[in-house]
Fold:
Amino acid sequence: MSRRVRAWWPGLAVAVLFALPLLPEILGSRRLVFRDAQITHWPWHEAASAELAAGRVPFVNATASGGQPLLANPNAVLLYPTFLLTRVLPADAAFNLHYLVHVLWAFFGARVLGRRIGLGAGGSLVTGVAFAFSGMFLSYGSAFMNASAAAAWMPWCGAALLDLGRAESAGSRARAVAAAGIALGLQLLAGEPAISLLTLLLGAALLVAAAAAAPRAERVRRLWTSALASIGAGVLALALAAPLLLPLRAVFALTYRGQHSYSERASGAAAFTPARALEWLLPRFGGNPDQIDSGVHWLRPHLAEDFVYIWCVTFGVVPLLLIALAAARRDFWGRKSGILAAGAVAGLLVAFGFRLPFYRLVFAVGLLRRFRYPIKFYLLTTLAVALLAGLAAEALGRRRMDRREGAILAVFLAAFAAAWALAAPGGALDRRVAPLAAQASSDPGATLEALRGLVRGDALLGALATLAVALALRRRERPRDPSWAVAGLALVSALPWGLPLFVSAPVEALEKPPALVHRLEGPGRLFVSHRLPRFDPAELRRSGSDALPRMSRVARTFVEELVPLTGSPFGARYLFEEDPDGSYGYFNQLASEAADASPPVERDRLLILYGARWALAEDGEAHPLFRPATGLRVAGHRLLLFEAPRAVPELRWAGRAWRRASLSDALALLRSDRFDPFDDVCLPSRPNLRSEDAAKPPTTARLEIETLAPGRAAVVVDADGEGHVVFSRTYFAAWRARLDGRDATVSVANARDLAVEVPAGRHRIEFEYDRSPFRTGVVVQALAIVAAIAIASRPGTVR
Structure:
């Protein structure tokens, strides 16, 4: 076998083994539906595709929360290269491939980083498999479109920055700057700023390590030169991501995260816990995501967590076993392994969040407080462990196993045997979990049976993997590198628990229109009670089976219950969403929270004001200002669709103005019976003045609507007096208006919407979402691409 073939065939083998079980997803007959994949990413992509099909840039998503910035939402991942797949492939296949391709991209990136730190072909293969098929990465790669892409770029960025730190000549340094800038820029376009910050932390550590490895006399100069070059790479990255960053800059101040600093509880949510270390050896101890009960993902939220952000935290049994075997010998430990181990431990400690006192130093920084979930630091731990696994595999190939390694193998086998015994029917696992299952599950017996099966299955797989590693490391007569074999074992042992994370449902079932969607025709928006989704697990089980219901069936329930934004591809337009990353607008989120906190009559006044025509809720929830229109039974629960007599138009004339000095005062007025949602408008008070009540009878006007689109509207007004044109879009400073061709001031109307003051007479008013930041960003990106090509074309090679 030639050297070139030996270089590419392992990657091809990994890709084939990973892809074969997922052919239905790759071909688009099934769609990924786990968590954010169904609730946000798919609806966003469908909304963007609809705008592009209409010949418009998707600046605004009109189906979401009164119209939300779409292109400027990093979580939507619309400016990332894989979005182009939607133009050449079926939508479902393109959507799935974004997730699946980045698992392989992470594999190749970690393998490249392994080679950069000195691993051979076999050791770097172990590193690639250990990182890409870790619980942390697959949890990202199966649910979060932005996080999976950003995490996949982390090792690529690390490799490029390490090249930069080691560059000996101006030419090689320039090429490294180009490579690092491109990798960081694409990571920024992926839209997960917390992972980008972690990548910068990783890059800084690698630059310091590269300088420390230089001759003593060269260290300071090397570090200084690398720092300056890395700034150049950062500037290039920002320029490449300018089409996203400039539109985001224009709206960030009024996004939910731009205004809201998370509380200690919210900021520290979903931290790592000591109990989750059980997943290191038993990856499915937290449950199988395709098997659910009562809407709760197993029992973990009842034990220690408010929200399970990362489904599985295993590093893989084989990588852990390799590290344990190698670490028992002193010759494994050196500067490289010591630095990686220290980095792994540091990342793990920070992932504990507020369980460790020093996390308060992170929380004390205002910028960092806007990022939730300390378990994100676990990604650094995962990458460090993957690199250690590669080092360990090569170290174990250089020596014979002795009693120490035998004892460690015996400990692993004993741990798996103990897990098997504890998970026996009526065993210790049952006694520990039964009370929790009785509280959380509608069928505790089925829950216990499923958990026992998963724990015992993992124990059996772990024991077999341990024995297989022992055979692979057994020294024969002639020396050989066992890394190739253990890399294959790491992959094969990861697939049984890793593949179920890619929860999917048949496209045919998902594309069937919801039963209620035909009732949502005409003007107005839909309010879905925040108490939904609700379902009876017994209704979702396969007939004649005691197994727990499958998430693939729950996904259809989400569509039938019109859970935001699952109905938007079918034409539903939503008033509010629960997820602040989805609702995005600060004013819209406050309006939603005010509605939730209000008594039924006041809540309904707000809903009608903001354009609600329909309200969907479980039978028994009061909506006094709406009338019941129809009902249906979904998954064991009866739902009622309420309808208002008429909807407040998206473009309307407000002939009477109220002014309030604060948002809380404005929301109090809007919920009262003094305010007429069809004729009145509430505006911020004038400078240096207090609140003002409406003093005059409302004026009237006739409106001729010329254009009404997600990011643009035009209307001709013939008014008998002064008043305001109100446009039902969530207020952002990016909105512009023109009155008879001249710039006009856009005000916050009704604590959320847009309004322009109009004098008496006949006038033409235009609203338009500002396109200039995006256009400037495209120009900057084009110049950055030219600069990257020019920089990379300089003579010299990256070592």
